[in-house]
Amino acid sequence: MIIRAPRRLGRSVSEMMMVGDTMETDIRGAIEIGIHAFQTTSGNDTRKKALPDGPPPLSHPA
Hints:
It is a single chain. By secondary structure, the chain is an alpha+beta fold. The chain has a domain at 5-42. Helix content is 32%, strand content 13%. It contains three helices and two strands; from the N terminus they run H-E-H-E-H. The chain has helices at 5-9, 23-33, 47-50; strands spanning 17-20, 36-39. The protein has a two-stranded parallel ribbon with strand order 1-2. Strand 1, helix 2 and strand 2 form a beta-alpha-beta unit. The longest helix has 11 residues, at 23-33. The radius of gyration is 16 Å and the shape is elongated. The N and C termini lie far apart (46 Å).
């Protein structure tokens, strides 16, 4: 899918960006063919394992 996207859309890889939540597939696949990639967090976020209580609460400005 990632390999065919630029061709199907009539764009070069330098004009595209991949946003994904899985490093092994989404991000790695994009980087391997030269597409800029940004990782987001989701239910697949492995940081939840490192932070069993979840991320710290956001602090709000007073």
